[in-house]
C-alpha cells in the first residue's frame, strides 16, 4: 500500500483556475452506502495529487476541483476494486451512483486520513462514532448504548431521555423486539462490528408520526460476503426468584442469497410489590399487593433476502412468539379509624391469572434503484396477528378489626377476556435526489381490526352466574392513510436545512354488541418537521428542530376488560379514548465533540392516563383510562464525556426540567407545577491489556419532582458489571448487579375526589446476573427489514 497522503498541499497555479464541483454517491453491489471511501483527483499525465475528500455516512461526496487540465477521478476503499474516470469536460457534474466491485486482493491505494469525531451533529440526528469510543469498545451493542448521548440503559431496559418511547433500528431496519427480547438481541452484536449509533430525538416525516418517541439506528461496519455466523447465548438472573434464558442465532450469505434466523427461550419469575394508600374522611386505606409474575416465552425469527440484480432486491421476514405470562397475587388491605387509630376492617384477596399470548407477523419488501442519479423505490407489505387470552379468578374475604369474618362478605368472580388484533399495511418510499436538493416522499395504508370479548361470572354463591351487565363484545376498527414529503439541502459548507410534512387520515369505528351501540369518528392531521444546523467550525455545532407527533392509545387501553384486584378495586380500559398530540422544539449546541447542551420544550394536548376514581361512600376504587391532561415542559439536558486517566472513561449527565400540567376533569388535581432533576455518572475501567477485562459502575439519582398531576419522591440506582473476553474475544462472560442498594422505589402522591392518594411500586429490580455469549464463524451483514406496521404493533403492549 502506498504511503498515507495528507491532503494539504495544492499547487499555486491551481488557485488561478476555474472551480468545478463534482458530486456522487458511492455504493456497493448490494446498493448499500460506503462511508469514508477515498475520493481522489489526480493529474491525468503524471498521476500527481490535486485534491481529495472522503464520502460521508450516506456514501455521498462533493468535491471542488481547480484546474482546466484533464484529470482522473479515483475512488477507492479497502476490500473493493478502484473506480476510475477521466474528466475532460470542466463543468459542475452529478456523477450519480458509483458502484464499487468487491475484491479479494489487498488494494494498493491512496488513503485520505480523516479523524472522525466522537460525536457528530447532523441536521436531524446525533451520530455517536462507537469505533472512536474507549468506553464502548470490547463490549456489545448494549454497552455502546450505555455511553451514547441522550440514551439511558437501566436493568437492560433502554430509554431516551425526555421521550416517552423509543425504537431501535439496525442498518435502518426496525427491530420489532422489546424488553428482554430486545436486550438479548443487542448483546449478540459486538461493538467491534458497530460503526456508529444515530440518536434521532425528533424523527423526520419519513417515519410514522406515532408516539412522542425517538429512534436509535445502529450502523454496522461493512462485512464480507459468502460467510456464516452462529451466536450462542445464555443467562441466569437471580432476583427474588430465578430467571433463565437461552438462545441461538444463525446468519448465512452466499452469492445473492442471505438467510437469518433466531430462537430464544426465557423461563422464570419476578416478585413485584404494589402499595396503595387512600385517606378517607374517617378511615385510612392501606393496601399491599405481593405478586409473582411468571415468564414462559419462546420467540423466533426467520428471514431471507435475494439480490435479483444490481438494482433490484426482494426479501421476506417472519417473526413470532408464544408465551404464558401467568400472574399470582396475594392482596391485603386494612382500614384504620382516623380518630382511634384502631383497625376497623381487613380485606384479604387472592387472585390468579392464566394468560396466553400469540404473535405472528410477516413482512415482504422490494427495493429498486431506478437510475444512476440515486432514485430508489422501496415497497413494503406487512401483516401481523396478535391474540391475548386472560382467565382471571379472584376471591376475597372481609374481616372485622378483631379478626372475625364479616357475614356475607365473601366475593369470588371469574373474568375471561379475549383480544384478537389483525393488521394489514402497505408502505411506499421514494428517494429522489436532484442537483441541488434531495427529496424523499411516499405513503402508507394501514387497516387494523380488534375484537374484544369480556365475560364476567359471579362465583360468590359457589355456582357460576353469568353477569351480562359486566360482559360485552367490543369490535374496534381503525384505518389510516398517510402521505409524506421532505426536502434536504446544504447551503455551502456550514448551513444545512431539512423540512417535511406528514399527513395522516384516520377512520375509527367502535361497536358494542351487547348495548348495540356504534361510534364512528374520523380525523385528518398534519405533522410538520423542520431542521436547521450551523457549523461555524470543527469545534462548534448549533442546531434547531421542530416536530409535531401523535400518540394513539395502545390496544390494551382500548380493551374494556375489567381487572378485579378485590371486590373494592378494579381497573378497565376505555374504548372511547382519543389520541394525544405533542409539539417538540429543541435547540442544541455541541462543543469539541464531547459536550452536548440541549434546551428543549414540549407541549402535550389531550393526554390520557389511568385515573383512580374513589367513591368515599362505598370505598370502591375504579382505575379508568381518560383523556384529561395538558402538560408543558421546558428543560435543559447536559452531557460531557472525558477520560480522566488512561484506561478510564467517564460520562456525566444532567437533565433538569420544569413541568406545568392541567386537568380537564374534576376528580384530579386541577393543576400542578414543579421542577425535576435527573443526574447520571458512569465510568468504565480497562483492567487488563487489550481490553479483555472491563469494569463498569454507574449511579443514577432523580430528585423529588412532579409527574403530570402527581408528585413523586426521589429515587436512585447503583449498578456495576465485570466483563471478560476470552477465546480471541469470541466468548463474552458478564457478571452484573443491578439496583444494588434496592433504592429504585419512587412513591407517587395525588388526589382523587379531594381524597389524598399515593402508590408505590417496586418491580424487583435488584438482581444479580451472569450471561455468556459465544460467537462462531465470521460476522456478516444480513439485511433486516424495517417493519412498516410497527406503530400498530407497539400498541399491543
List keywords for this structure.
elongated, mainly beta, Immunoglobulin-like, disordered N terminus, Maltoporin, Chain A, 64% strand, 797 residues
Descriptive overview:
Keywords: Cell outer membrane, Membrane. Pfam families: CarbopepD_reg_2 (PF13715), OMP_b-brl_3 (PF14905). Its main location: membrane. One of its GO terms (cellular component) is cell outer membrane. It comes from Aquimarina aggregata. This protein is an all-beta fold. It has 2 domains: 88 residues, Immunoglobulin-like, CATH 2.60.40.10; 644 residues, Beta Barrel (Maltoporin, Chain A). 2% of the residues lie in helices and 64% in strands. It has 3 helices and 46 strands. The strands form 5 sheets. The protein has a 31-stranded mixed sheet that branches. The protein has a 6-stranded mixed sheet with strand order 8-9-14-15-12-13. A 4-stranded antiparallel sheet has the order 3-2-5-6, with no helix packed on it. A hairpin with a 4-residue loop joins strand 29 and strand 30. The longest helix is centred in the first third of the chain and has 8 residues. The N terminus is likely disordered.
Amino acid at each position: 500500500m502506498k504511503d498515507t497522503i495528507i491532503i494539504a498541499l495544492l499547487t499555486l497555479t491551481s488557485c488561478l483556475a476555474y472551480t468545478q464541483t463534482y458530486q456522487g454517491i458511492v455504493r456497493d453491489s448490494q446498493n448499500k452506502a460506503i462511508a469514508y471511501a477515498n475520493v481522489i483527483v489526480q493529474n491525468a499525465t503524471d498521476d500527481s495529487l490535486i485534491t481529495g475528500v472522503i464520502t460521508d455516512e450516506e456514501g455521498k461526496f462533493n468535491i471542488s476541483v481547480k484546474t482546466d487540465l484533464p484529470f482522473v477521478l479515483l475512488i477507492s476503499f479497502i476490500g473493493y476494486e478502484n473506480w476510475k474516470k477521466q474528466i475532460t469536460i470542466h463543468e459542475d457534474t452529478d456523477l450519480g451512483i458509483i458502484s464499487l466491485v468487491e475484491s479479494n486482493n489487498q488494494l494498493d491505494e491512496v488513503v485520505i486520513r480523516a479523524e472522525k469525531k466522537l460525536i457528530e451533529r447532523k441536521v436531524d440526528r446525533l451520530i455517536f462514532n462507537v469505533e472512536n469510543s474507549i468506553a464502548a469498545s470490547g463490549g456489545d451493542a448494549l454497552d455502546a448504548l450505555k455511553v451514547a448521548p441522550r440514551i439511558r440503559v437501566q436493568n437492560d431496559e433502554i430509554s431516551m431521555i425526555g421521550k416517552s418511547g423509543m425504537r431501535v433500528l439496525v442498518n435502518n431496519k426496525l427491530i420489532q423486539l422489546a424488553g428482554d427480547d430486545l436486550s438479548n438481541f443487542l448483546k449478540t452484536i459486538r461493538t467491534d462490528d458497530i460503526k456508529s449509533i444515530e440518536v434521532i430525538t425528533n424523527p423526520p416525516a419519513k417515519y410514522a408520526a406515532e408516539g412522542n418517541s425517538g429512534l436509535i439506528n445502529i450502523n454496522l461496519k461493512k462485512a464480507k460476503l459468502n460467510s456464516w455466523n452462529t451466536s450462542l447465548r445464555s443467562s441466569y438472573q437471580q432476583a427474588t426468584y430465578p430467571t433463565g434464558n437461552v438462545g441461538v442465532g444463525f446468519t448465512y450469505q452466499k452469492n445473492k442469497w442471505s438467510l437469518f434466523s433466531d430462537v430464544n427461550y426465557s423461563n422464570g419469575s419476578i416478585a413485584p410489590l404494589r402499595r396503595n394508600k387512600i385517606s378517607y374522611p374517617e378511615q385510612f386505606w392501606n393496601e399491599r399487593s405481593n405478586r409473582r409474575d411468571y415468564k414462559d416465552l419462546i420467540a423466533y425469527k426467520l428471514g431471507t433476502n435475494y439480490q435479483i440484480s444490481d438494482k433490484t432486491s426482494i426479501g421476506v421476514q417472519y417473526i413470532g412468539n408464544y408465551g404464558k405470562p401467568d400472574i399470582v397475587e396475594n392482596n391485603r388491605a386494612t382500614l384504620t379509624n382516623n380518630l382511634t387509630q384502631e383497625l376497623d376492617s381487613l380485606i384479604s384477596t387472592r387472585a390468579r391469572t392464566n394468560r396466553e399470548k400469540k404473535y405472528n407477523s410477516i413482512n415482504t419488501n422490494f427495493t429498486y434503484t431506478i437510475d444512476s442519479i440515486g432514485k430508489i423505490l422501496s415497497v413494503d407489505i406487512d401483516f401481523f396477528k396478535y391474540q391475548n387470552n386472560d382467565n382471571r379468578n379472584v376471591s376475597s374475604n372481609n374481616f372485622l378489626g378483631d379478626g372475625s369474618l364479616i357475614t356475607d362478605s365473601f366475593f369470588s368472580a371469574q373474568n375471561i377476556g379475549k383480544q384478537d388484533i389483525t393488521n394489514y399495511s402497505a408502505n411506499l418510499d421514494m428517494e429522489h435526489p436532484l442537483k441541488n436538493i434531495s427529496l424523499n416522499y411516499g405513503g402508507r395504508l394501514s387497516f387494523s381490526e380488534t375484537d374484544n370479548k369480556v365475560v364476567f361470572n359471579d362465583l360468590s354463591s359457589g355456582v357460576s352466574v353469568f353477569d351480562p351487565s359486566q360482559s360485552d363484545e367490543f369490535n374496534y376498527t381503525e384505518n389510516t392513510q398517510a402521505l409524506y414529503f421532505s426536502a434536504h439541502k446544504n447551503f455551502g459548507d456550514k448551513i444545512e436545512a431539512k423540512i417535511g410534512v406528514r399527513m395522516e387520515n384516520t377512520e375509527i369505528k367502535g361497536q358494542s354488541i351487547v348495548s348495540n351501540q356504534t361510534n364512528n369518528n374520523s380525523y385528518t392531521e398534519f405533522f410538520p418537521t423542520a431542521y436547521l444546523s450551523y457549523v461555524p467550525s470543527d469545534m462548534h455545532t448549533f442546531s434547531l428542530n421542530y416536530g409535531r407527533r401523535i400518540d394513539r392509545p395502545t390496544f390494551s387501553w382500548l380493551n374494556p376488560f375489567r381487572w378485579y384486584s378485590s371486590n373494592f378495586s378494579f381497573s378497565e380500559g376505555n374504548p372511547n379514548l382519543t389520541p394525544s398530540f405533542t409539539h417538540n422544539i429543541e435547540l442544541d449546541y455541541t462543543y469539541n465533540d464531547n459536550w452536548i447542551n440541549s434546551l428543549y420544550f414540549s407541549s402535550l394536548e389531550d393526554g390520557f392516563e389511568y385515573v383512580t376514581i374513589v367513591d368515599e361512600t362505598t370505598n370502591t376504587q375504579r382505575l379508568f383510562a381518560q383523556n384529561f391532561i395538558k402538560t408543558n415542559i421546558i428543560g435543559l439536558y447536559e452531557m460531557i464525556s472525558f477520560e480522566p486517566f488512561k484506561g478510564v472513561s467517564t460520562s456525566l449527565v444532567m437533565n433538569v426540567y420544569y413541568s406545568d400540567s392541567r386537568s380537564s376533569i374534576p376528580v384530579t388535581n386541577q393543576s400542578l407545577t414543579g421542577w425535576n432533576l435527573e443526574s447520571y455518572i458512569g465510568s468504565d475501567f480497562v483492567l487488563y491489556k487489550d481490553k479483555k477485562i472491563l469494569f463498569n459502575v454507574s449511579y443514577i439519582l432523580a430528585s423529588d419532582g412532579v409527574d403530570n398531576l402527581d408528585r413523586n419522591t426521589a429515587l436512585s440506582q447503583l449498578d456495576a458489571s465485570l466483563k471478560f473476553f476470552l477465546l480471541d474475544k469470541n466468548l463474552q462472560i458478564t457478571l452484573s448487579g443491578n439496583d444494588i442498594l434496592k433504592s429504585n422505589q419512587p412513591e407517587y402522591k395525588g388526589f382523587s375526589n379531594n381524597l389524598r392518594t399515593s402508590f408505590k411500586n417496586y418491580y424487583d429490580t435488584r438482581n444479580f446476573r451472569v450471561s455468556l455469549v459465544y460467537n462462531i464463524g465470521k460476522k456478516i451483514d444480513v439485511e433486516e427489514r424495517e417493519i412498516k406496521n410497527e406503530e400498530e404493533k407497539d400498541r399491543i403492549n
